[in-house]
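Data follows
____________
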Amino acid sequence: MIVLIGTLLVFIIAAAFHAYNSGIATGMQRRRPVLIRDLQTALEILKKSTLESRAKPNTRLVTAFGIQNAFTTRASNNHRSFMAEVKDLIRIVESEDWRAISDRADRVINGCMGEARYGQKIQLAPLVQHVVLRMVLALFFGIGLEPQNEDVGIITEKINTIWLLSKHPEAASDPKLVEQKTLLHAAIKRVFSLEQELSISPSENPLNIILLAYETLWRVVLRCFLEVCFRSPSGHRSHYGEILRQLCRDPTIERLEVRQNYSTTLIALITQFGQPDNISDTPELLVSVRDLVSEALRLYPPTRRIHRELSWQSYAIDVEFLHRAPTIWGDTAMEFRPERWSVLEHDGDILKAYMPFSAERYFCPAAPHVAPMLIGVLVAVLFKQFDGNWKVDGEEFQAVMSSDEPLEGSRDGLEGLQLVREHISY
């Protein structure tokens, strides 16, 4: 009898242990993580981060997209190999002819505009997604890559749909997610001339790079463009527009960093266009394109939450909260104020709260130059194309035009926005 009870206990304990282990990747992830809004606690968690602590919360992406990259691997040799490849790519991109990239973006936008020059409406979010994906493909996979517009549209749409579906607890067995993944992979195979009949190896999937670059950029480009072109006061917009036009004329990392005060801009505007209608009430407004990008990344961080799992506990560092906290950034924390960066760049304590590309051990290698430069160039080209006789329309119109609160930051926010060319009377 004692032996029977002992055997039964062993069986129960073993079954419970197996159930516990098999639930790590599912049950624990379904639990709501501890939300971290204290800066010091956030920094301590990031310092303790390991590949394991980062990979566990990202397990869903492996299944959803069929990928294996630096965010999903638990093996240090795989991580080193992937990061070495990424750093080599970044070194190549840094040396790129940014004039060619700027001109290419210009051509892509012109192609997307089509007959909209004559009154048709343009869906803004799909336009930005299309342009950003094409630029990412050109920069990281070769300037000669020319995918069909249909495939670009499929890739951008399916990435967004799959990302949202993957957040549901039963995503792995969701037939809709499987279908969307199949369509996404088929488009990837066409773009990269891969055999349709063969599966894409997770470690060699082009989505490993595409997701890191495209997903990081497009929402920031969209919101930075809206802030600069449609939500800023007229005088500020004139100033921002001039430094963006200068970047279009001279698309270099050096130009990205040049800070120009409003007095200099005013002289340039008068020289080009005559006396402007609106003059800023802050004549010494000192701003660079880098500052515009940094402020957009602050208000609209690409990763709103950084997830980690340490000692069987899940954490979600609320990056968006830390980036907008008045206790850190002051009374204007909820406003788009790029001029703050001419002062903040010397304040190390405040900058600890700035983590659009993560922080500590797993800081993104594209953060210093490539990401800000690409965002800056794309916003500059968009501004050049749509400044003037264009207005924002659509379902979220009032939210965009009201500058009291930041723009909607979610993945599917601002979907209904349109650009419409206003009628010109002569």
Confidence is low (pLDDT under 50) at residues 2-29, 273-277. The longest strand covers residues 305-310.
